[in-house]
Here is the input.
Amino acid sequence: MRRGSDASMMPSAPSGSDLTMRPSGSITAELAGTAEGLAGLPGVHDLKTEGTRVRFDVDSKDLDQALGLLTRAGVRSLTSQPPTLEELFLRHYADDLAKENARHPVVTP
Here is the structure.
């Protein structure tokens, strides 16, 4: 972090544990049935369903519960993709950027 009068405006760097506790990445699955209750699971984000195909992001700590629900629905295929480095940094800094934008809104002519 930079020192000086504008140091408070600089977001803090993420620690290794901050990055690993973020979503595990994207899960895409083709199921035999429907994944009832997946939307209500803690840690599941950006759920998209098309028939028996689901795609979502899930927090690392909630991955086991989400996979258990998919297994009960009958998994035909499953792909897990870790988040990109860009996604990790965007997720980490999103709150800092939102706060900064609220304090210093951008005015367009």
Q: What stands out?
A: Confidence is low (pLDDT under 50) at residues 1-11, 16-20. Residues 11 and 81 are 27 Å apart (CA to CA). The radius of gyration is 18 Å.
